[in-house]
Design brief:
binds calcium ion; 6 helices; 4 strands; Recoverin, domain 1; two-stranded antiparallel sheet; globular; 9% strand
Length: 115
């Protein structure tokens, strides 16, 4: 599966709609997430960014993403992929699991950071 939520998060922070994977993020987008500007995206930086993105999406601040909240960013298929227990809400746990999977998938050489 593609890095759906990461793309979503990238969209929120950078306003760039077509970055579908980490690999497609350009230098400017990466810099927005790379807090210490070392040119690498560490897991901590990724988690901070992911937390920010969740809170931006969770408009009613109830700690889950409903279909209405996710609709601007995910199509129904993507939503269902992330909603692992099928209750029509993306919980924080489901979101974090997806983001962790996205990070692992993007970290091809498994050095704990994206470069
Ligand atoms: Ca960094
Ligand atoms: Ca919500
Ligand atoms: Ca769910």
């Amino acid at each position: 599966m593609r890095s759906v939520l990461f793309a979503t998060a990238a969209l929120l922070v950078t306003g760039v709609a077509n970055a579908e994977t980490v690999a497609e993020l350009n230098e400017k987008e990466l810099n927005a997430i790379d807090a210490n500007n070392d040119g690498f995206l560490s897991r901590d930086e990724f988690n901070a960014f992911s937390d920010y993105a969740f809170q931006e999406m969770d408009e009613d601040k109830n700690g889950t993403l409903g279909l209405d909240e996710a609709k601007p960013f995910l199509d129904i298929k993507q939503f269902q992929d992330v909603d692992r227990n099928g209750d029509s809400f993306i919980s924080r746990g489901e979101y974090d699991a997806q983001m962790a999977d996205d990070f692992d998938a993007a970290d091809k050489n498994e050095n704990g950071q994206l470069d």
